[in-house]
Design the sequence.
């Protein structure tokens, strides 16, 4: 068995520029492959389109909504409870406000709720899961995971009710209550993955080469759990928005006259079934946004290969 | 050669606390590597070779592992008592390690270049610029003769062959210019042709750089080619140590005999039956000598007492009561 490898000094230098070029090329190929996997599933494209539509509507709400002034305190009893028409495609509510305009602004509250809750929840949840997983079997692991278990044992709606009865019922208290209950799911997810990864040879190999704990947590383990985290974030957007709407529905979230989608469904429920449009269109708006994020999440799961979720 | 050993493991015990009790996996292992020396560590799968090396670099998962006794002196300092920040400087720069499976030893989500750059960054306290890091990578990459290095560095581990991955791992182990390289069965997961290439490469690098090496393997032929001295391990204990040629010419311990006979021969004999029995259960290891249930020469004393090391000639020591009376009073 002879030496089939080239002679040792056949590469007098290795060009940094060339390496950078190659790495850029691999990254571009990766992006292309990811898009291919994502777009192969037409439902995930539909989901992405729905999410994009909701995002654009929410961002440009004042420009898109036909009656932006109906979002502020406003009454027009002459035009109350009008059925859907060209002037009011979704009809008007019990005090004459345009339901389409209010639903478009309602997207803002729903997305705001999802974004705030998840950005409060994901970083600490992931960090705790990484630490507990890396120090698996030690006291650090036990403390973090038992606290996680305690939080998981409290039903989120009950806690939100409790918080609302102690504090003022409003959107930020609702977001606080949901956040308090949501982080343990990320801790559990990441813990499960990280405690397996920490025994992988590439982690041991990094330890052996003198890597710091921070490097191992954030540069060796985290990149390998980022796919399931992103998939869960997308699926959770839908869930958080549902919970937020539920809290609004029972009067603990967005307070009238602000146009929360759940709040609108609650006030329209009184007029079912005769003036069905008052409750049904905001409810369909919730369906659109939640379904969009769920389909997107499924697409991300396929694309990223995160079967754990 | 300096007289003080580079690495000296003294009476190392490692226990694993598991359901059912305590696994006494290492039971008083002692081991010495001198500067510039190439030492082989052989024994069958599960005898504690890798555990010994992981304990040395303190990468055993603790819990369940515990080290109830022993010292691991590297350049005179006990690694087991060392503070974490100082230990990190020993890892990579003092001792580095190559693993059996190069695929598992590389992070699947980063390019080879990114991973080698990370190792360069760990090898110094200084903050290096991208081009400084690149400069420090060139030498080790050239030493492992990675073909088309620019393309290799821009690739993910999955895009490389096993042999190329192991070359990358060796380059990573050499980045910080270590004094001691631990190679844990560096070719086992590769096919024989590639394994041969990797071992030739290692052998050449070790000669050129005057590294000290611990080569862990269960392939005796490799040990014979590459090492100066060999330790034979059985069930968490050292059973024999000798210069490589001496060991092959004159194996003493009944277990070493069994190992040698288990090697298939091209000239007559064929494959032997090997050593009857299996490696013992670490939960209830046999009392006395751990090899006695499988030993063809077992005596009463073997069942009761643990044999010490008997020095039978210059550097040939064996832990077996058969040689109690043959010890040279040197």
Sequence:
């Amino acid at each position: 068995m002879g030496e089939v490898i080239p002679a040792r000094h056949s590469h007098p230098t290795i060009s940094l520029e060339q390496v950078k070029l190659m790495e850029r090329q691999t990254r571009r190929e990766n992006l292309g492959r990811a898009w291919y996997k994502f777009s192969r599933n037409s439902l995930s494209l539909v989901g992405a389109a729905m999410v994009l539509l909701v995002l654009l509507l929410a961002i440009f709400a004042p420009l898109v909504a036909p009656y932006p002034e109906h979002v502020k305190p406003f009454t027009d009893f002459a035009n109350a409870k009008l059925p859907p028409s060209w002037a009011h495609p979704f009809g008007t509510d019990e005090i004459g406000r345009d339901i389409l305009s209010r639903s478009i602004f309602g997207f803002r509250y729903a997305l705001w709720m999802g974004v705030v809750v998840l950005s409060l929840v994901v970083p600490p949840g992931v960090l705790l899961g990484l630490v507990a997983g890396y120090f698996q079997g030690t006291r650090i692991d036990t403390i973090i995971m038992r606290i996680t278990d305690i939080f998981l044992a409290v039903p989120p709606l009950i806690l939100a009710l409790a918080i609302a009865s102690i504090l003022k019922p409003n959107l930020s208290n609702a977001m606080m209550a949901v956040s308090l209950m949501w982080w343990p799911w990320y801790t559990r997810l990441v813990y499960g993955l990280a405690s397996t990864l920490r025994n992988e040879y590439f982690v041991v190999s990094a330890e052996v080469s003198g890597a710091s704990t921070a490097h191992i947590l954030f540069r060796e383990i985290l990149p390998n759990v980022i796919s399931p985290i992103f998939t869960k974030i997308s699926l959770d957007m839908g869930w958080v928005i549902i919970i937020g709407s539920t809290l609004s529905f029972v009067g603990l979230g967005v307070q009238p006259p602000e146009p929360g989608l759940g709040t609108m469904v609650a006030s329209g429920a009184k007029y079912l079934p005769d003036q069905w449009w008052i409750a049904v269109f905001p409810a369909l708006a919730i369906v659109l946004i939640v379904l969009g994020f769920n389909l997107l999440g499924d697409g991300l799961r396929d694309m990223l290969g995160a079967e754990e979720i | 050669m300096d007289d003080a050993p580079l690495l000296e493991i003294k009476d190392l015990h490692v226990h694993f606390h598991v359901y059912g009790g305590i696994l006494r996996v290492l039971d008083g292992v002692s081991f010495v590597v001198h500067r510039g020396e190439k030492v082989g560590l052989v024994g069958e799968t599960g005898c504690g070779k890798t555990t010994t090396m992981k304990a040395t670099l303190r990468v055993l998962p603790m819990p369940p592992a515990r080290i109830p006794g022993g010292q691991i002196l590297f350049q005179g300092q006990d690694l087991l008592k060392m503070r974490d920040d100082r230990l990190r400087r020993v890892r990579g720069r003092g001792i580095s390690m190559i693993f059996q499976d190069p695929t598992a030893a590389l992070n699947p989500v980063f390019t080879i270049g990114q991973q080698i750059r990370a190792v360069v960054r760990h090898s110094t306290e200084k903050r290096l610029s991208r081009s400084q890091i690149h400069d420090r990578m060139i030498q080790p990459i050239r030493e492992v003769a990675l073909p088309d290095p620019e393309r290799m560095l821009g690739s993910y581990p999955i895009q490389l062959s096993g042999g190329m991955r192991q070359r990358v791992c060796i380059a990573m182990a050499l980045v910080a210019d270590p004094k001691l390289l631990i190679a844990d069965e560096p070719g086992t997961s590769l096919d024989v042709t590639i394994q041969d290439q990797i071992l030739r490469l290692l052998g050449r690098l070790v000669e050129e750089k005057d590294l000290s090496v611990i080569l862990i393997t269960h392939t005796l032929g490799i040990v014979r080619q590459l090492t100066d001295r060999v330790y034979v391990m059985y069930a968490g204990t050292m059973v024999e140590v000798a210069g490589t040629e001496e060991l092959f010419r004159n194996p003493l311990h009944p277990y070493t005999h069994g190992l040698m006979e288990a090697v298939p021969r091209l000239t007559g004999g064929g494959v032997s039956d090997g050593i009857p029995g299996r490696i013992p259960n670490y939960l209830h290891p046999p009392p006395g000598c751990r090899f006695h249930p499988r030993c063809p020469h077992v005596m009463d004393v073997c069942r009761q007492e643990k044999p010490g090391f008997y020095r039978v000639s210059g550097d040939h020591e064996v832990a077996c009561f058969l040689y109690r009376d043959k010890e040279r009073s040197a």
Notes: The CA atoms of residues 231 and 300 of chain A lie 6 Å apart. The longest helix of chain A spans residues 213-249. Residues 6-10 of chain A have pLDDT under 50 and may be disordered.
